[in-house]
Design a protein that fits this description.
Structural class: alpha/beta
Number of strands: 8
GO molecular function, one term: aminoacyl-tRNA deacylase activity
CATH class: Alpha Beta
Pfam family, one: tRNA_edit
InterPro entries: YbaK/aa-tRNA-synt-asso_dom_sf (IPR036754), YbaK/aa-tRNA-synth-assoc-dom (IPR007214)
CATH topology: YbaK protein
CATH superfamily: YbaK/aminoacyl-tRNA synthetase-associated domain
CATH architecture: Alpha-Beta Complex
Protein name: YbaK/aminoacyl-tRNA synthetase-associated domain-containing protein
Domain YbaK/aminoacyl-tRNA synthetase-associated: 41-148
Order of helices and strands: HEHEEHEHEEEHE
Largest sheet: 5 strands, mixed
Number of helices: 5
Number of domains: 1
Distance between the termini: 37 Å
């Protein structure tokens, strides 16, 4: 267990996935992994293959929302799935405190605080997902069906 205040790293994500027997791969880049078009070119990726994790709250309960990197989270669509609920995006500070990772490198798993996972339906159309790997220069490659199976995620239309 990590001490309070200690940031998590890609090795924590790797160990978590390895313990769960989930196939995955990491790519370490020279610069911020998801922000640099050159990194996407090196990996032979299109931006639509890259996803991000955003922490939201639904009636005060944390949800990890996995959506395409080139889209925004849609609170309107989430409210359609959770009518009469208060839905809000966590602040960057709260995301760091809850996950243990720097915003921009948040992986979809191995967070400090347990949360329910939602996966945008467009993510499930991809063979593999490339996402934050726990450090700014790390990318994680994982199959969406493995992520859904591991987290018990609900697949919904939550991006725009």
């Amino acid at each position: 267990m990590l001490e309070r205040g200690v940031m998590r790293l890609s090795v924590d994500v790797h160990n978590f996935l390895q313990n769960e027997d989930i196939q995955h791969e990491f790519f370490l880049m020279e610069t911020r992994a998801k922000d640099d078009k050159r990194n996407l070119e090196v990996l032979g990726l299109k931006q639509k293959e890259v996803v991000k994790s955003i922490i939201i709250f639904i009636d005060g309960k944390p949800f990890n929302s996995v959506i395409p990197f080139n889209k925004k989270i849609s609170l309107t669509k989430i409210r359609q799935h959770y009518p009469d609920s208060k839905v809000e995006i966590a602040s960057h500070k709260t995301m760091v405190e809850m996950t243990g990772y720097v915003v921009g490198s948040i992986p979809p798993v191995a967070h400090k605080t347990k949360s329910t996972t939602l996966i945008d339906k467009d993510c499930m159309k991809l063979e593999v997902l490339y996402t934050g790997g726990g450090e700014p220069n790390a990318m994680l490659k994982i199959r969406p069906r493995d992520l859904q199976g591991l987290t018990g995620a609900e697949v919904l239309d939550i991006s725009e």
